[in-house]
Amino acid sequence: MTSPIETEASTASVALDKDTATKNDAADGVNLTGRSPGQLMWMRFKRDRVGMVSAVVVILFFVVSALAPVISKLYGKDPYTLYADKPGYEGLLDEFSLPVGAFGGISGDFWFGVEPNLGRDVFTMLLYGMRTSLYMALVLTFLCVLTGVVIGMVSGYFGGKVDYWLGRTTDFFLAFPNQLFFIAFMPVVTALFVSPTDETPTYLRAVVMILVLWFLGWMGMARLVRSSVLSLREREFVEAAKVSGASRWRIVRKEILPNIVTPILVQGTYQLPSSILTIAFLSYVGVGFVEPTPDWGRMFATGSEIYEQNPAFMFFPGVAMVVFVLAFNLLGDSVRDAFDPKTGR
Predict the structure, then answer these.
(1) pTM for the predicted model, two decimal places
(2) Cβ neighbours of residue 82 closer than 8 Å, sequence gap 6 or more
(3) Which pLDDT score, from 0 to 100, does residue 13 have?
(4) Are 100 and 173 in contact (CB under 8 A)?
(5) How high is the pLDDT of residue 12?
(6) Among 77, 111, 227, 344, which residue's CB has the most CB atoms within a 10 Å radius?
(7) What is the CA radius of gyration of the chain?
(8) 182 and 287 in contact (C-beta within 8 Å)?
(9) Contact present, 142 and 272 (Cβ < 8 Å)
(10) CB hemisphere CA count around 168 (13 angstroms)
(11) CA–CA separation, 242 vs 232, rounded Å?
(12) In the 3-class helix/strand/coil scheme, how is the chain assigned residue by residue?
């Protein structure tokens, strides 16, 4: 049986060892300061190789899209010129208006081949098509996330009649058949601004597409934010802020919003590739961008008409879209795991 004197000596020895270790760490220059949640998230994210590779791929897509005019100038071609009719490029298409050469006419002059029938450069069409789709989807995602966050936070925090009516409004918009609504409503909105006898400007088509998609794209984010706020508004730290006299705006901004950043960010990373696919779908069915605007969906529409004669035309835009959507979805998973290690794969 240990005596009180031995126990006291043992305790003093342990304390001395801890004090010595602390001094040694300080002497060795070990940083003992704590890390913020953001720093911890970044450390976990850096250890995720899939997430890092996905982030590099996504950033590369956006950089290439932003530099499309520069790359096109250095490359020496553009997505609008009909090279089959241009002097010096005779023989690009055969008598059936299909590219001459292997795999869609790939050569040193045309890295990804040429477009059937018109003879345009596929490489620059893909660059500008990515530019159109990515940046439209970025604007659309920002608007949908912002709208969903505002409506969801108001609904969840105030509750009562405010929550009821905002919830019913959200349910009403969710009842719309999205794809059919897009197809039917796009020409109607365009006709409000442009006479049927006039050509619709490209910028107006882009604005109308964003407005229509925004109109029916915020509900998922709103419901997610509402459920998160409902689970937080009765927590102790929120009640403490109320007791201390903090305003509603300060409580929402300082106490609730920082605690729902994770689901908002993750949902946003999933919504952006979904927006790209929807924008491409609208152009594919003929209610989005039209000739001669380069667009992913329009390239798929052209490729679907000639895939039996020239399957190579759909190869490069198809691979580019699959890689981007897959990388962005994997990035969303990695961001979620970095914020919440309990859900780690």
Answers:
(1) 0.79
(2) 118, 119, 120
(3) 45
(4) no
(5) 42
(6) 77
(7) 28
(8) yes
(9) no
(10) 5
(11) 13
(12) CCCHHHHHHHHHHHHHHHHHHHHHHHHCCCCCCCCCHHHHHHHHHHHCHHHHHHHHHHHHHHHHHHCHHHHHHHHCCCCCCCHHHCCCCCCCECCCCCECCCCCCCCCCCCCCECCCCCCEHHHHHHHHHHHHHHHHHHHHHHHHHHHHHHHHHHHHHCHHHHHHHHHHHHHHHCCCHHHHHHHHHHHHHHHHCCCCCCCCHHHHHHHHHHHHHHCCCHHHHHHHHHHHHHHCCCHHHHHHHHCCCCHHHHHHHHHHHHHHHHHHHHHHHHHHHHHHHHHHHHHCCCCCCCCCCCHHHHHHHHHHHCCCCHHHHHHHHHHHHHHHHHHHHHHHHHHHHHCHHHCC
pLDDT score at 34: 61
Closest by alpha carbon to 268, among 133, 139, 175, 182? 139
Place of tokens 């049927």: 196
Q: Which two tokens stand for residue 176?
A: 């719309």
Residue 62 identity (one-letter amino acid)? F
**Is 266:335 a contact under the CB 8 Å cutoff?**
yes
Q: CA-based diameter of the chain, in Å?
A: 104
pLDDT along the chain (345 residues), means of 10: 43 44 47 62 78 89 90 88 78 75 78 83 89 89 92 87 89 81 76 73 83 86 89 82 81 83 84 87 82 84 79 85 88 78 55
What pLDDT is stored for residue 148 in this prediction? 92
Measure the CA dihedral 255/260/262/265, to 10°.
-120
